[in-house]
Structures are given as structure tokens and as C-alpha cells.
Amino acid sequence: MDVFVNFINKLRLLDPPLYGGKFTWSNLRDPPSFSRLDRFLISSEVAALWPDFLQQSFPRGLSDHNPVYISVVGDNWGPKSFKWFDNKELVQQLQITCNSLEGKGIETLLRHCKAVTKEWDRSNRSKDLESVQEIEKKCQLIEKKLISGEDIQQNSKIFENATFEAMVPDKERRT
Fold first, then answer.
1. Measuring CA to CA, how many Å separate 91 from each of 95, 117, 165, 171?
2. Spatial distance between the Cα atoms of 47 and 50, rounded to a whole number of angstroms
3. Side-chain half-sphere CA neighbours of 126 within 13 A
4. What are phi and psi of 93, to 5 degrees?
5. 3-state secondary structure 47-99
6. Alpha-carbon distance 97 to 102, whole Å?
7. CA distances (Å), 174 to each of 26, 35, 157, 163, 168, in order?
8. Judging by beta carbons within 10 Å of its beta carbon (0-12, 13-18, 19+), is residue 24 exposed, middle or buried?
9. Which long-range contacts (CB under 8 A, 24 or more apart) does 111-118 make?
10. Whole-model pTM?
11. How many CB atoms lie within 10 A of CB 94?
12. Where does residue 87 rank: exposed (0-12), middle (13-18), buried (19+ CB within 10 A)?
């Protein structure tokens, strides 16, 4: 550990403040142990260019590490543009809307297209959230099976059978 600290001091690296928590790792045991393992170290030159540089910690979810990301406050360009022409489903809905409003005027057309786009966005965000929740549930189930050893025995038998079949020629297995 001293070697690492000496390395940081020798290069004069800075550890920007961490927002969102004090620790980035937990052993997930009882009693718990916490540590700040994950961090970004920056040079003084980078700190001079971006004085508002910071680290943000997020909830760990299923991992034993909290994800950490860096942010340069002041260089926020807003949300990333949505390339809606790349989404065929939305384009089809907008074409149907435009065709049904033919001759109604540009203001009416834009108002209806905005409503269709907002509704499409709302429904797709909920689908994405459901997908994330399903994946998290599957991960929890797999973790429980691993802890109980249930799948380990089954997988080792499958591995043994596959290894045997790969090593022994087909003719010898039949005899």
C-alpha cells in the first residue's frame, strides 16, 4: 500500500471529491466491511483545466462495487440527441399521424407529432425499466443458486459428460 501512496505522491496526482457515498466496495458479509477501492486520479494540469471535476458514486445494485463516473461540471451539453429516424416503429407512427392530418397546417401537424413522440417515449422507457428489473431478478436467482451449490453439482456432471464425449471417439462410446 505504501508503494501505491508513494507513486501517487511522486506524480502529484489528485483524488477529486466523491459524491454519493464514502465507500465504493463492500464484502457483502455479516459483519460488513467497506472500502474505497474505485477512484479516478487526475494530474494537477487536468485539475487546472477543469476545476469542477468530480467523481459520482451510484448504488451498487447486484455488484459488490459501486459504479463511479467522472463529471466535469460546467461542460454539460444537455441530454444526448435522440436520433428518431433510426427507430422504424416511431417513424411509422409519425407517418401515420402526418398522413391522417394532411392539409391541416404545420402547427397542427407538429403538435400531433410531438404528442405521438412523447407517448412513444413514455411507453418505451417503461419497457426498458421492466427489462432491467427482469434481468436483476434473474441475476439474483442465479446468485442464490450459486450460493446454495445447486447448479454447481449439475454443471460439473454436464462438464464431465461433455469432456468424456469429446475425448472418447464415437465408436468406443457405443460399445
1. 6, 9, 51, 58
2. 5
3. 5
4. -65, -40
5. HHHCCCEEEEECCCCCCCECCEEEEECCCCCCCCCCCHHHCHHHHHHHHHHHH
6. 9
7. 52, 57, 20, 16, 10
8. buried
9. 116/90, 117/84, 117/90
10. 0.41
11. 19
12. middle
C-alpha cell at 29: 458479509
64 touches 26 (CB < 8 A)? yes
Length of the chain: 175
Tens-digit pLDDT string for the chain (175 aa): 789 889 888 999 988 888 888 888 888 877 878 888 888 899 988 888 888 888 988 887 778 888 998 887 665 566 767 777 778 888 999 999 999 998 888 999 999 999 998 888 888 777 777 777 788 788 777 766 765 655 555 555 655 565 555 555 544 544 4
One-letter amino acid at 42 equals: I
